[in-house]
Amino acid sequence: xxxxxLIFSCSxxxxxxxxxxxTVNNDFSDILNLPSDYYNYANPDLPNHFxxxxxxxxxxxxxxxxxxxxxxxxxRVLFYDVNLSGNNTVSCASCHIQERAFADEGAFSTGxxxxxxxxxxxxxxxxxxxxxxxxxxxxxxxxxxxxxLMPIQDQVEMGLxxxxxxxxxxxxxxxQPLFTDAFGSSEVTSERISLALSQFVRSMVSYExxxxxxxxxxxxxxxxxxxxxxxxxxxxxxxxxxNRTQCSNCHETATFSGDQARNNGxxxxxxxxxxxxxxxxxxxxxxxxxNSLRNIALTGPYMHDGRFATLREVVEFYNNGVQNSPxxxxxxxxxxGGRGGNNNGNVRRLNLNGQEIDALVAFLNTLTDESFLTxxxxxxxxxxx
Length: 385
What we know:
Blueprint: H1 3-9, H2 48-51, H3 53-57, H4 69-80, H5 92-95, H6 144-147, H7 150-153, H8 162-170, H9 175-183, H10 190-202, H11 210-217, H12 231-240, H13 247-250, H14 275-279, H15 311-320, H16 354-365, H17 370-374
């Protein structure tokens, strides 16, 4: 049993062994509901289609920050702690809600003083599986370790400096055993906060949907009908992986995530430059991160500005609503197959009928992972929240 497990599980009358430093010899069970033994964050029982082949190759976990049970436990507490905001009103989880697959139900999220964010809050499932490892819609964060500290410092979202953040976390006694177990001492630094939060987010792997069940049943052959799918869902699966729609060319592998940002033709005249606004490169204008489709039925509204309320609206957009935007990804042009830069081809139209649109929506619903949405190891550990 770890130090933090012993401390958080003991009652006020229990004795704590003498070899534990007196500075962490406290019972915080009235504040945090943590298990007597750590949850398994480091080595979940992933199916073969997550541990072999392409999926293993797109894991953006850095060598210097592997997921550990201790680090992710600390990250979980930090993720749900309102002390990470300037007025103790919001946490990371305020905008990333477990029942919504760690997305927000609004087009924009509400910050610590009531202001709205500039873009929609993404779902976090399978964030570790993104080729280039960049984060935010405009990919301005080079790594997840960079990303997790940026909302905390944002003057709309959480409103703290890193110095203020460290001071506030140091003032909470319940963090001392958590930092000690994760890093070997109770010292609080912004780097350690970043590492722990990143570990918790990377541990959010969703792999127990009906799609996963079907793929296992047919031994990984996506071309076969899944016996646990309806006829409509199998039609949607076939369409998703077809050359006709090319959905799977942007949402790749069993994680349904992207490999880089794309311009998907939301606007002919750009109202948000996306990646181009960060890089200053005209070729990047209108490009946005391609997020995982895991649990997509629960992460609406959709796109960076939340303009589409339903999955059907999204499919209808790709069917006949893509705009001839400068830099439109070539996958969305007639005869295309690569990234943007060819503005001469016509925009592709999928010409899906009503049943086919219904089928794609039905298939996307099979990516919902009910276990992930209710797993206690991802839930709020604070007793009074």
